[in-house]
Amino acid sequence: MASSLLAHRAPEVRQASQATAALLKRYLALTKPRITALITFTALVGMLLAAPTIPTWSVLLWGGVGIALCCACAAALNQVFECATDSRMSRTRGRPLPKGQLRVRHALTFAIALGLVGTTILILCVNPLTAILTFATLIAYTPCG
Hints:
By secondary structure, the protein is mainly α. It has 6 helices and no strands.
């Protein structure tokens, strides 16, 4: 009985899983993952070169996570504030916001959450100066900054 019920629900479960995957892909696109990865890598190399001694693995790990989240926040905020412009440019009109695949309010909430979590990680796990400088960079990158 249970197996026949599961077999009957399998297409619905598969469809819901595909919809969830598509939604996650849209949110990931807001973060501009290639740019975020490049900036995070560059920041980690900068941490290694600037430190008088090699930073601990913990600082490198949490610094990378915090910087990546703040960078992702800046990328998402950029897309929120530039949505109208992005819809007119052929290179950017396929992004989730101009295509109407995500609501601006949801993208803004997502971006703010990324920034808050990233900044909190930097304050608690790295140091306040790194958090302040990263947050200042985030603000400077966004069109309203």
